[in-house]
Specification:
Length: 201
């Protein structure tokens, strides 16, 4: 379970969240909201990549800011930049070494990234960059997978792969997106940032 406890976050003196408390335990959750409503910030807080100004976030009763939590959480978000100087192969190998997992995964072919393994990250198209971001997030099979607008820039093959991923992934998946997610018979919990911020969960 992902728990936000008395979270306050502000930018330039303006509160984005104030004393926000709620928990998320559904296997598949979609968070929607207008641009600037805090969707990405919420995911960055959940991943432990952003420290809240007040309060704390925990996953499975462990503070997400602790190093041990990083193995349990994966995130794909535009604000989490990939190292531009590496090739796709080098980045996946580095990620695998960091987490002690296999750099080879069937998702490379399923997302259609295999022709670009020797391409530098800086030279990838928007769509292929997104594919790589998704694969690096899930490579170590984290128990919590956080995806920010995961379908942006994807071609039809990759969108179909994303749909299969969302249906089959063994851990909890939280998606911030405006798009309808194809999950087959899998139940999806929809949450709006408006309801989250005003404590209506």
């Amino acid at each position: 379970m992902l728990v936000f406890d008395q979270i306050s976050q502000y930018y330039g003196g303006t509160f984005l969240f104030q004393n926000l408390s709620f928990s998320l335990d559904a296997p598949r959750i979609q968070i929607s909201g207008a641009n600037g409503s805090g969707k990405t910030t919420l995911l960055l807080l959940a991943a432990g990549l952003l420290k809240p100004h007040a309060g704390h976030v925990s996953f499975r009763q462990q503070d997400v800011l602790l190093a041990g939590s990083k193995r349990q959480i994966g995130i794909s978000a535009n604000k989490v930049a990939l190292p531009a100087f590496m090739t796709v192969t080098e980045l996946l190998r580095f990620q695998a070494q960091q987490f002690g997992c296999d750099e080879r995964t069937s998702w490379i072919a399923e997302f259609g990234l295999d022709p670009f393994m020797l391409t530098q990250v800086a030279d990838l198209s928007l769509g292929n960059y997104k594919k790589l971001s998704l694969i690096t997030a899930l490579l170590h099979q984290p128990e919590l997978l956080l995806l920010d607008e995961p379908s942006n820039g994807l071609d039809e093959q990759a969108k179909a792969a994303l749909s299969r991923l969302l249906q089959s992934y063994p851990g909890q998946v939280i998606v911030a997106s405006h798009d309808d997610l194809a999950l087959g018979d899998l139940q999806l919990q929809h949450l709006s940032m408006h309801d989250i911020v005003r404590g209506a969960l």
